[in-house]
Design a protein that fits this description.
- By secondary structure, the protein is mainly beta.
- The chain contains two helices and 13 strands; from the N terminus they run ββββββααβββββββ.
- The chain has helices at about 155-160, 160-165; strands spanning about 40-45, 60-65, 70-75, 85-90, 100-110, 130-135, 180-185, 195, 200-205, 215, 215-220, 225-230, 245-250.
- The strands form four sheets. Strands 3, 4, 5, 6, 7 and 12 form a six-stranded mixed β-sheet that branches. A three-stranded antiparallel β-sheet has the order 11-8-13, with no helix packed on it. A two-stranded antiparallel ribbon has the order 1-2.
- The longest helix is centred in the middle third of the chain and has 4 residues, at about 155-160.
- The relative contact order is 0.15.
């Protein structure tokens, strides 16, 4: 667990130092203590290597989102109270409600196609890797041009939901002006990413009114950030429609 207090000897699953291997066929119970609002990564440290043989790369990680005391959170579509999820409407007592999104970055995944082979990159001819976001992936090879006509190969086509449908990673939906927070989590152990949100900005230090205002942020393995979007969804110019969020990979 990153950022929450706990008893290291009795409640840590990391196979480091003098700790024993923590892989088990049974149950292990951990106790964590949350004392402040924020996003906190927890992950499998039974084998923290960056190879395919390690355990973390197979997706055993998540996050604890700590809300203000006595806050309640609900499903944005049904209005029903939630216990967990990637998106929620949060109602803290005595403070404005806000729409909350949790976005996870992964390391690149080792995958195979339907024939049991590594997918090949059509440009380089080399095996293609896939990086997932929030346990889902939409590689560009799934959105190849439908013909050799140059009109079929532009970004307005390859990234269009009209042509290919909505992408697999979760879409962060909101109404214009909705107060919004993005909880950004890096669950990997290997690669640094950059998150950029078009037309929107946030403060680098959330609680500091004099902080630098940014629209992109680098996030490395085991890091978490809260992006408190200024002026809500749609930003100050109250834009409507699709707004692209981009993740750049080194």
């Amino acid at each position: 667990m990153q950022g929450l207090s706990y008893n290291v000897q009795n409640s840590d699953g990391a196979c480091v130092g003098f700790n024993q291997d923590s892989t088990t066929a049974g149950d292990i119970y951990y106790t964590w203590y949350a004392r402040e609002e924020g996003v906190f990564l927890f992950h499998d440290m039974a084998d923290a290597g960056s190879s395919e043989d390690s355990t973390n790369i197979h997706g055993l990680f998540g996050a604890i989102i700590v809300e203000p005391a006595e806050a309640k959170w609900f499903d944005p579509q049904t209005g029903e109270e939630l216990e967990s999820g990637l998106m929620a409407d949060v109602y803290p007592p005595g403070k404005p409600a806000f729409r909350e999104y949790t976005v996870f970055f992964h390391d690149e995944l080792e995958i195979k196609d339907k024939d049991g082979n590594r997918p090949m990159d059509h440009h380089t001819g080399l095996p293609s890797s896939t990086t997932a976001i929030s346990y889902r992936a939409e590689p560009m090879r799934n959105r190849m041009p439908m013909s050799h006509d140059p009109a079929d190969s532009g970004e307005d086509v390859s990234m269009s939901s009209w042509v290919y449908g909505d992408p697999a990673p979760p879409i962060l939906r909101a109404y214009v002006g909705d107060p919004s927070k993005i909880r950004l989590v890096h669950g990997g152990v290997k690669e640094t990413h950059v998150f950029h949100l078009h037309n929107h900005q946030w403060r680098l230090e959330e609680e500091n009114p004099l902080s630098t205002i940014i629209d992109s942020i680098s996030i490395s393995p085991q890091e978490c950030y809260t992006l408190d979007i200024l002026y809500g969804a749609g930003s100050r110019n109250r834009v409507i429609g699709d707004v692209t969020s981009l993740s750049a990979f080194p």
